[in-house]
Amino acid sequence: MRSSYAAMRKLLHAVLLGLVGAGIVHIVVLLLVPEFSERDAWSRLSMASDLYRMTRLDAEAGGAPVVKSVDPLFYATACRFDLGEGVVRIKAPGHVPFWSVSVYDRSGHNIYSFNDHTANDRVLDAVVLTPAQMIDVRKDLPEDLQGAIFVEAPIEEGIFVIRTFVPDDSWKPIVSSFLEKSSCELQDF
Amino acid sequence: MLKNALLTLLSLVIAIGGGGGSVWYALKAQDGVGAIRIGQWTAFPDIGTPAADPYSKARVAREGVLALGRAEGLSFVAERDAGGGELKRECTYTIEGGFPTARFWTLYAADQSLGVVETGKSRLAALQSYGVVRQPDNSVIISASDHPMPGNWLLTGGFGRMYFVLTFYDTPIASSTGLSDVSLPRILKVGCNA
Q: What is the pTM of this model?
């Protein structure tokens, strides 16, 4: 009798210990998922293309979408950049009904976003740089950067995404060519 | 000795299995921390920002989401109608009411992964605000159905669960103060194909 009581207590003890452990494992796993995920936006994009290369996110360009681009009435394109190598400039010529832009850090967090109402003459021309690079650029602002939007981001690696609205089928070629002509390149000073 | 080893093993199995499983379950569930509910619509204004909770962050990393920024827009997802029933692809719904201020909005019927539903037809299962007919009071009545409807018709089709995704672009409600007195359209079930 006494021995079975002791065995029960031991079993209960083990189960309780397991539950406490489960709580700890839950927290640890949760915090480690973003660190070790191989399915995050950065990893998916890096499988599809190189740094400073615009990659279409919608299925329209052929093949399955690289990153889930949610709205079916939107086209989107993205490029990865590394501010450790220099300042990045993103340009897209022409006009579309609506464009918006987001800068994400390495783990996919939205750092900064703006849309065509923010831009000069609604033309997409942006420069992404770190606060330290900003100080350098400010000292002697090049002529052709006068109209650009400066995005100060305290990051090194990041993702730049352009989203454009496709109101109906007739806009598809125009919006598509807007994204095809967009560029993402390292800027020299 | 063997009994002690077995008990240790039991503790470990509960700890690792329970801990891992509960994370997996929490990330699967559509509902989550940081959600804002307005009627049947749910939004996650903080998802994808550095201020998001750990569950949102893990979900962003696992699903490779690139969430809309505040200056871009805000998405609302509905999974139930006003009567509390789950949305079904084989049913007809009326979505009616006023829409909050935004440059424009889009509405589409989505499947479990929040991608647009495949209907096998050339018409997209999506509508946008420049292409809808409005009532005299500026409200909008949308009929979501798998057969053509008068007025604003949102094509759906197939069988199984369905979600409505309503996204407002360039909108003041995406800023944190704007969400307090927003009202969104109601989703009413009209009937189902048996």
A: 0.86
